[in-house]
Amino acid sequence: MASVTITNVRKSYGHFEVLHGVDVDIRDGEFVILVGPSGCGKSTLLRMIAGLEEISGGDIAIGSKVVNDVAPKERDIAMVFQSYALYPHMTVEANMGFSLRLAQAPKDETKRRVREAAQILGLDHLLDRYPRNLSGGQRQRVAMGRAIVRQPQVFLFDEPLSNLDAKLRVQMRAEIKQLHQRLKTTVVYVTHDQIEAMTMADRIVVMREGYVEQIGSPLDLYDRPANLFVAGFIGSPGMNFIPGTVSESGPFDFIAAGGVRLPLPEPGSAKRGQEAIYGIRPEHLLINQGGIDATVSLIEPTGAETQITALLGPTQIVASVRDRIDVRPGDTISVGFDFGTIHIFDAQTECRL
Ligand code: ADP
Ligand code: MG
Questions:
Q1: Ligand 1 pocket: which of 10, 12, 18, 53 to mutate (most atoms <8 Å of CB)?
Q2: CA 210 → CA 22, 48, 113, 194, 318, distances in Å?
Q3: Ligand 2 center–CA 208 separation, angstroms
Q4: pLDDT tens digit string along 195-247?
């Protein structure tokens, strides 16, 4: 196991810079997820840790050693990609042992490590099968098995679950998390799926367009998003954003479009008259418990909860309620706000106030 220290790392393709000075400190044994929209530079950063992309600026260290100029196979990492690329003509056992055979590890050692990994992954009864006779989830496990047998310092995963159907994805993400709890090897994991990031990571690195927007534990990001981007990216359905201004005088309120007055918590660093964005998550809106009137436009039950879209003045908001409530489009509901769950962002800088 080892830490991974990424210091002011830049990457350019020709004149086009895609990573603009990224700093991330990954602790020994930590499960860190890089998350962000497609094209933000996650895979590029991961491939730089692996040694598959040259580093245009800055340093990457694994443990205490800067590895900028160290060949991939000398870095003691193992990578699992979205496409598992198993060898079709090799059995599960041969696929899993391939890298050890390549490294000319003793035969019995290879066999022992493959058996061990197969047992951890529940593949022991499939060692003689060929990839074509495996389900998607089993192939995924073989790909992980190939990484595990190498007993690397660091596991690198690039969207390993993207090819699986929704149900299997949920199952595999629990398996990978348990695997990490068992092996305790440092993991750097890339995904565009914020739920995957929230459920699996010790810490999440939110990226956008080659910049790190915020680093924190899943609940840090959920409770205290540093800016509008993170606030909107984490959580589903997404946070409601209501533009407006902080009241000039009188009670310290937020004046939204249409003159709707929303309660503001303690002034914090929000100033009188300031243009701001009022953020509240759908699950934090209190429906029909007093508050401000809104007109329902859409009801979407999911079973466990119901999403209600409504107009608060001219602004559309979404509320998510766990109780079954009897409302229909056109009905008036009351929307209540709890001070503890309100986020205020500067309209210009988009940073949290
Ligand atoms: P992500 O994994 O977050 O979807 P990538 O790291 O694959 O994003 O890509 C980041 C940016 O770098 C994108 O704009 C992509 O087009 C660009 N990029 C990636 N690889 C290359 C390459 N070999 N040559 C030029 N541009 C590239
Ligand atoms: Mg990618």
A1: 18
A2: 8, 14, 38, 17, 31
A3: 13
A4: 999 999 999 999 999 999 999 999 999 999 999 999 999 999 999 999 999 99
